[in-house]
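Revision sheet: structure tokens.
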Amino acid sequence: MSRIKRKDGFEGQKLIALPESVLADYKTRNPAIGGVHITHIGYFPHAEFHYRQRRHGISDDILIYCLRGRGWFKIGDREFEMQPNQYIITPATTESLTYGTYEDDPWTIYWVHFSGSQIGDFNQSFGISSNGLPKDIPLNKKGLEIWEEMYQSLEMGFSIENLRNANLCLNHFLATFFYPGKSVKKEADEGDYITQTIIYMKAMLHEKLTVEDMAAKHNFSVSHFSTLFRKATGMPPIDYFIHLKVQRACQLLYDGKAKVKDVAESLGYDDPFYFSRLFKKYMKVSPEHYKSMHREED
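Predicted:
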């Protein structure tokens, strides 16, 4: 195995880690569907030198779907190989957990971490255990479509509607692996102006948008646009825009390398102290504390 080891940072990767404060609030407000929920989600294409070691196990279940290339998995003293169009679901465990790619054929993987108060019953119902081996599956196009919907929903912000949508999709996503070929085709509405507004917000995270700017995109009055946006998302447009900025800040701070000042500037905040106060208001911890939490986790 190569001396080079990377847990993430691959070109074209996608990764979202849901903050603990967001998960805690979600589970409190959604006990009926909070029993099994997403905690992390990611896509690593051609992940050269990918290597992850969790000496004390992990508190989440992990699904890894290998689309291309090859990798390996080790739980305790059991080791096995993963090939293209194989997947594995490992349960929460206190055993040492290590996995990675082969150097001569780097894997491309989609993965989801999920947990919750009912995860034990879930694992028992579906026979998920640490003795499980990778399973073959035909190219799971439907699963990949649903993965994209989960990711895009979370990428749009951690509103209660987005979290509910992503976590309801999680069950459908898992079903495409448990029962391949039995999924129902999804309907998509690409003309939704609220979605278009949120996409516009995401493209302008480095700027200072006003409600007037957003309303003008659709030739609406400010009051009419604000009413419709709040009805669709549950929050005012500016609050939603700030929410997206904070989410992006979490992604930039996650690996602990980015400076708070640089993160603030990249999101259109000239005053890093104002940014820090805003971040703490939404995340309940300061940006520096958020960075240190993930350094300790690693």
